[in-house]
Amino acid sequence: MTPLINQACDILLSNLKVYADSGRAFDIQRNYGCFTLDVVASVAFGTQIDSYKNPNDAFVKNSRMFFEPQLSGPLLILTIAFPFIMIPLLRILPNKKRAEVNGFFIDTIKNMIALRDQQDPNKVRHFLC
Length: 129
Fold this sequence. Notes:
By secondary structure, this protein is mostly helical. It has helices at residues 2-22, 28-44, 58-67, 73-81, 83-92, 96-118.
């Protein structure tokens, strides 16, 4: 995992170097958020993305949708006021966005498994426990 994390660190440093050279202000939270997403994508999913330079990548978009708050104002107030009723109700109500994001990640995982099954056994990453 260390080489993959180091690779994401190199991408982060190259993105930060642009700001250091220019002296412009920047959003550090966005930079570290992109770094974190790059690490998760490479370590957990085996995909290399530069989420800072490619914010429209499907993996980036679906990851952001996954972590966005799911409840709007009125639903949030009802959930806080009546959690014993609303939480089970929210779990069974259809949610198009949740289904779309879950479908994307399930398909991504299936594709990664299929690609690893097709790889030469000598080139597959081995994990030590």
